[in-house]
Amino acid sequence: MGNIKLTEVTKSFGETEVIPPINLEVSDGQFVVFVGPSGCGKSTLLRLIAGLEDVTSGKIEIDGRDATTIPPAKRGLAMVFQSYALYPHMSVRRNIAFPLKMEGLSKQEIDARVATAAKILNLTDYLNRRPGQLSGGQRQRVAIGRAIVRQPAAFLFDEPLSNLDASLRVNMRLEIADLHHSLKTTMIYVTHDQIEAMTMADKIVVLHAGRIEQVGSPLELYSRPRNMFVAGFIGSPKMNFVAGADASKPEVETIGIRPEHIFLSKESGEWAGKVRVAEHLGSDTFLHVLVENLGTLTVRADGEFDVSYGDQVFLTADPSKIHSFDKNGEAIV
Amino acid sequence: MARNVSPSRKTAITFLAWSIGLMMFFPILWTILTSFKTEAEAIASPPSFLAFHWTFENYLEVQERSNYFLHFLNSVIISFGSTILGLLLAIPASWGMAFVPGKRTNNLLVWMLSTKMLPPVGVLIPIYLIFRDTGLLDTRTGLVIVLTLINLPIIIWMLYTYFKEIPHEILEAARMDGATLGAEIMYILTPMALPGIASTFLLNVILAWNEAFWTLNLTAAKAAPLTAFIASYSSPEGLFYAKLSAASTMAIAPILILGWFSQKQLVRGLTFGAVK
Amino acid sequence: MISPSVLLLFGWMIVPLALTVYFSFLRYNLLIPGTHEWIGFMNYQYFLTDPAFFEAMKNTLLLVGGVLLLTVFGGVGLALVLDLPFWGQGVVRVLIIAPFFVMPTVSALVWKNMFMNPVNGLFAHAAKFLGLQPFDFLAHAPLFSIIIIVAWQWLPFATLIFLTSLQSLDQEQMEAAEMDGAGPANRFIYVVLPHMARAITVVILIQTIFLLSIFAEILVTTNGGPGCASTNLTYLVYAQSLLQFDVGGGSAGGIVAVVLANIVAIFLMRMIGKNLEA
Question: Looking at this predicted complex, what is its ipTM?
Answer without folding.
Answer: 0.83
